Amino acid sequence: MDLQIIWFILIAFFFTGYFILEGFDFGVGMLLPFMKGAGEENDRRRTAAIKTIGPVWDGNEVWVITAGAAIFAAFPEWYATLFSGFYLPLVLIVIGLILRGVAIEWRGKVDTYEWRRRCDTAIAVGSYLASFLWGVGFTNIVRGVPLNENGRLDSFNDGFLGLLNPLGLLGGVAFVALFMLHGATFIGRKAHDPLRSEAHAIGLKVLSPIVLVGGGIYLLWIQLTIGEGLTWIPLAITVLALLATVLGLARGNDKLAFWSTTVAILGCSIVLFGSLFPDVMPSTSAAFEGWDIYNASSSPYTLKIMTWAAVVIFPVVAIGQIWTYWQFRKRVRV
């Protein structure tokens, strides 16, 4: 197999891991405004929800850093086009991540209800902003953007305003809804009642119908306009996983619900990256044919060194993160 294909698969793997792990972090943050109760009771529920992700959220962000570094080293032309043309939305994503991260870390620094409420608002805003823009950005990467004769993108007219097309906006909403559902199943997996039953109710009665309808339309749109023949398989798996999520929530089966949303995100990611391959930045203009895994890649020698480095380093990082999840596997209480 070509090293270009291997590194495309690895980058897809890193982003998929990020969407699965950081997805429930975003989801928990976006669910904070919907916690029941008033005053101190509401504060205790939000505190317990944040404790479910407290030990792991910062480690989950390592996946996107790794994915970005892999793009930079393996496909420098993809990196140059993406990070220049999508400059404004990427900056807004970083602002959302900073806002959320600072709020999580500083939430317990001042022991007042008002301070924690403001931090919770920042966590929710940062989570919504990042989730929505990840959906908009990735949808447009797969859909294609109007590259000029140099293979670059106008960073404002096309790289920001151009991303806000109907399919891109639907992708943003689909990412937000799916991450919220994933966050609800994660709270159900990690919290005791009453927070667990509250998350189940939100996931079953509110989020599941939105994800099934909105997400289904989004994936069908992608598949019918951009997708390949084989991507029908992960699309079908995604739909079945969402139906299994509904079943798990209805029966109070935390494991089934959480692992089903995990499979749904995995299937959605495979549809997106499968529809993108072998391109990395398709062009919708006649001025440039677009970047693919071959004309955007580094030299074979660079890819060889990166491959050996990944073989040595990645297992160590993965073992460390698995150990962290195992150490903090117990449920939290309100």
From TrEMBL:
Keywords from the UniProt entry: Cell membrane, Electron transport, Heme, Iron, Membrane, Metal-binding, Transmembrane, Transmembrane helix, Transport
Protein's UniProt keywords contain Ligase: no
Keyword Heme: yes
Subcellular location(s) of the protein: Cell membrane
Main location (coarse class): membrane
Residues that span the membrane, as ranges: 6-35, 81-102, 122-142, 162-181, 202-224, 230-249, 256-277, 305-326
Superkingdom, taxonomy of origin: Bacteria
Pfam family, one: Cyt_bd_oxida_II
Topology of this chain in the membrane: Multi-pass membrane protein
PANTHER family listed in its UniProt record: CYTOCHROME BD-I UBIQUINOL OXIDASE SUBUNIT 2, CYTOCHROME BD2 SUBUNIT II
Family membership: Belongs to the cytochrome ubiquinol oxidase subunit 2 family.
NCBIfam families for this protein: cydB
The protein's name: Cytochrome d ubiquinol oxidase subunit II
Species in which this protein is naturally found: Corynebacterium stercoris
Name of the coding gene: cydB
